[in-house]
Amino acid sequence: MNPLNEDLLQAWLGVSMAINNDRISLDLPYNESLICHLLYRRHLQHGERPLTATDLCRMTRMQKSQMNRTLTGMEEKGLVSRERSASDKRQIHVMLRLEQLDAYEKQHKKILGIIDELVTIMGKEKAEEALAIFRLIADAARKVIE
Asked: For residue 91, which of 85, 113, 132, 145 is within the disulfide window of CB 3.0 to 4.6 Å?
């Protein structure tokens, strides 16, 4: 047993337990928040260039059946709409209903407030180091898991 691996696992679990805490009550389930976040960022960066469920599956690593269930629930809540592409009838575009984003924006603001507090506690320099390490971990994890 490698002590470094055990320590890394323990630190990872510590972060996970701190984040998945009952005191951080989220208004939207994790998968819905993640999809809203991806669609919202896409909208801000690319305007009305839509994504498909397949795109979202690739980005989130969710199974197609789970994605469809999640999108159906989000559609029922009025968070997203799905429309068949005019240029390719096989594609169905998933679009964020911007007029219904109050729940997502409220949750996003709350999470950013928590991150602000973390940065205050850690200091900007350590926060920037953590950002670089998080990105490194995410890239390495993608390589290992793929």
From this structure: 85
Q: What is the pLDDT of residue 13?
A: 83
- Kindly write down the DSSP assignment for every residue of 76-120, as one continuous string: HTTSEEEEE-SS-TT-EEEEE-GGG-HHHHHHHHHHHHHHHHHHH
> Is 57 within 8 Å of 48 (Cβ atoms)?
no
Tell me the C-alpha distance between 115 and 46, whole Å. Answer: 26
Predicted TM-score of the model (pTM): 0.78
- Judged by DSSP in three states, 40 sits in helix
Region label for 78, one of left (φ > 0), alpha (ψ between -120 and 50) or beta (otherwise) = left
pLDDT in tens, 86-140: 888 888 999 989 888 888 888 888 888 888 999 999 999 999 999 999 999 989 9
Instruction: Judge contact between 99 and 107, C-beta under 8 A.
Output: no
Determine the 3-state secondary structure of 51 from DSSP.
strand
Is residue 65's pLDDT more than 90?
Answer: yes
The partner residues of 84 in beta bridges, in order of sequence, read 92
Is 96:39 a contact under the CB 8 Å cutoff? Answer: yes
